[in-house]
Design brief:
The chain is of the alpha/beta class and 158 residues long. The chain has five helices and four strands, in the order βαβαβαβαα. A four-stranded parallel sheet has the order 2-1-3-4, sandwiched between helices. The longest helix is centred in the middle third of the chain and has 18 residues. It is globular. Bound molecules: FE2/S2 (inorganic) cluster (FES). The site of FE2/S2 (inorganic) cluster has 13 residues, from strand 3 and helix 3.
Length: 158
């Protein structure tokens, strides 16, 4: 049996396909953890693009859904530990918002597991690396974002 991931159409993912992942990192603990991972030369998949945000509380549902609409395959939201947010409750709001968006992703057929949130201290570089590896593996097993194919099809019909 093939272990190649399937697209939402049931067709196998294109040969050599690699998921495109975005990691929204708050500018404090999460970005510091990612930076520490880099300076310690810890290996993590290269198909992850890090985007700074002042705080995970500033990442709105529109930002996440817009990224999925543009074809990103998975998103990691990384913020400070609970109780450690520099804007007090930003990460708690982000957790609620992320949980809600995961429900929406299920409802629209994208799949909740393409979005994950993790809480980190600045010293938790190994946890950052592990979280990145996990979301890449999860999304790889899910196949390409079905919205990407839908966007290409609608662009092709114009
Ligand atoms: Fe890090 Fe708010 S400043 S989550």
């Amino acid at each position: 049996m093939s272990s190649q991931p399937l697209q939402s159409s049931g067709a196998p993912a294109p040969h050599g396909w690699e998921p495109e992942i975005i990691a929204f990192c708050c500018n404090y603990c999460a970005y510091a953890a990612a930076d520490l991972a880099g300076s310690k030369r810890m290996q993590y998949p290269s198909n992850v693009r890090i985007i700074h945000s002042p705080c995970t509380g500033k990442i709105e549902m529109e930002h996440i859904l817009a990224a999925f609409e543009k074809g990103v395959d998975g998103i990691l939201v990384a913020g400070c530990l609970e109780g450690g947010c520099h804007f007090i409750e930003g990460n708690l709001r982000a957790r609620k918002r992320t949980d809600h968006i995961r429900d929406v992703l299920d409802q629209i057929g994208v799949g909740r597991d393409r979005l994950k949130m993790v809480n980190l201290s600045a010293a938790m570089a190994p946890t950052f690396v592990q979280s990145v590896k996990e979301i890449v593996e999860t999304v790889r097993s899910m196949g390409p974002n079905p919205l990407k194919a839908a966007t290409k099809e609608s662009a092709g019909s114009l």
